[in-house]
Amino acid sequence: MRINCAQCLRPEVQCLCAYLPRLESRWQVLILRHSSEAKHALNTARLAVLGLKQCRLMDGEVFAQLPALLAEPGWQNWLLFPAASAQLVEQGVASEAGQRQRLIVLDGSWRKAKRLLHCNPCLAALPRLSFASPPPSRYRLRKVPTAEALSTIEAITYALEQLEGRSFQSLLAPFEALIEQQISAMGSKRYQADFAARNAHLDA
């Protein structure tokens, strides 16, 4: 019987807790994770929650409590999701004195993220943030259409670095360890056949 770590939920022999930081941030991060992603072996949302003190995770598809949460006084909410009207994180945001900032992140495939947006109309009214020039994703076990398609924890890390002007790279340490574990488990031959060519810029 496989025993999992109670915190990171990985098998005990692959526990990632030693890699987890506990970072403070001025921004609060709220991750809305599509319910189908919760048991995905490579889902990174939980790692973000464990590594970032001001981070909260909600699972589901329709979030009944979300309108009340977004209406809490003293908060400016931003949705991290592409749109023609989106403000670029690289440019930062202005806030009024005493106002706290919250970043809403949708966790799932693009199809599932769009589903979350459709099922929760209160999200459509939020101002959006997007990336102008994010770094290439280091998610070497995922086939994506472009290198700019970041995993959830990578997107949060990059957004916070731009918005707060400091490094959050230690947040990626358990993510990097997770990827290395999975590559080791699948074996070099399979990795080379399935993923290595499209990730040559990362493995060099």
Automatic annotation (TrEMBL):
InterPro entries reported in the protein's UniProt record: DTW, DTWD2/TAPT
Q: Does the keyword NAD apply?
A: no
Name one process (GO BP) from the record: tRNA processing
Q: Which GO terms describe its molecular function?
A: tRNA-uridine aminocarboxypropyltransferase activity
Q: What is its EC number?
A: 2.5.1.25
Q: List the PANTHER family hit by this protein, alphabetically.
A: TRNA-URIDINE AMINOCARBOXYPROPYLTRANSFERASE 2
Provide the protein name.
tRNA-uridine aminocarboxypropyltransferase
Species name:
Atopomonas hussainii
